[in-house]
Amino acid sequence: MELRTAVSPRDVKTYTTQRLREEFLIQGLFVPGEIKLVYSHIDRIITGSATPAESALELTAGDELRAKYFCERRELGVINIGGKGTITVDGKVYTVDYKEGMYIGMGTQKIVFESADASNPAKFYLNSAPAHRTCPTVLIKPEGTPEEGVVIVKDENKVELGSLELSNHRTICKYILPGQVESCQLEMGMTKLEPGSVWNTMPCHTHDRRMEVYLYFDIPEDAFVMHYMGEPQETRHIVMRNEEAVISPSWSIHSGSGSQAYTFIWGMVGENQDFDDMDGIANQDIM
Q1: Domain residues for 236?
Q2: Between the N and C ends of the chain, which has fewer C-beta atoms within 10 Å?
Q3: In what side-by-side order are the strands of the sheet with 57-59?
């Protein structure tokens, strides 16, 4: 598990491009046969991936967590952006298809990831936060019929925003949030831009009570997303390629524009779970 410390906005103003990338960019995710984890001191979030190939992969605590098992004091959110796979949670098997997810509660002792087809492996994207109580483990599907242990994303949690004229026509699909999937502090969801639109989270905002991580995907090899971060009057940028993630401190904006449409997963942790608790930044105030 890679460890990264928190950073001050006063220091970030002096960072070079390379230093920005070292502190905030997460590369090398979704390597077949590997689990990749990055532990950030910013709200203690863990961002990572599990990409099982020929063999199953078990998520363990490692020495860094000083825990008996990964979810001893943590909750875990998962969204699959690859082929069909399974997640076995304390002996119970869940089939997780493309763009389906899971919430796994604190106290879960054994988590095992497998792919249905090693030639088209599942790509399980992971966000984990410290937890203080156990919430129910559930499978999350954007569409389908509700059944025991399965949550279907509610229509009111599929929000269409923006317009093609403003180059930001997009749909936000909220997976983990109060009123749908109970958690201690973790929230996750996915935003898909429509063809012809390239801007996300614009006008932009900050939310001082929680931080956020973005995973950008559905980006062709010759395309990119320009991710914008920093204080509203001290903005910086990081060039993002396919299936790369970026850490956003609570004091930073988090927005992007791509060379073409793309999709991204957002994950938030902190003291407040109110999705609309944002401090908006007017376009004319960005520098």
Answers
A1: 2-285
A2: C
A3: 57-59, 111-115, 85-89, 92-96
Does 132 count as an annotated binding residue? no
HSE, CB side, 13 Å, CA atoms: give it for residue 127: 30
Q: Which helix (DSSP H) or strand (DSSP E) does residue 17 occupy?
A: helix 17-24
Domain count, the chain: 1
169 marked ligand binding residue? no
**What's the distance, Cα to Cα, between the start and end of the chain in Å?**
35
Evaluate if pTM is beyond 0.90. yes
pLDDT tens digit string along 60-89? 998 999 999 999 999 999 999 999 999 999
Query: Both tokens of residue 282?
Result: 């007017």
Residue 247 CA, distance from chain mean position: 9
Query: Do residues 117 and 83 lie in contact, with contact meaning Cβ atoms separated by under 8 Å?
Result: yes
Tell me the residue type at 44.
Answer: R
Would the annotation count 207 as a binding residue?
A: yes
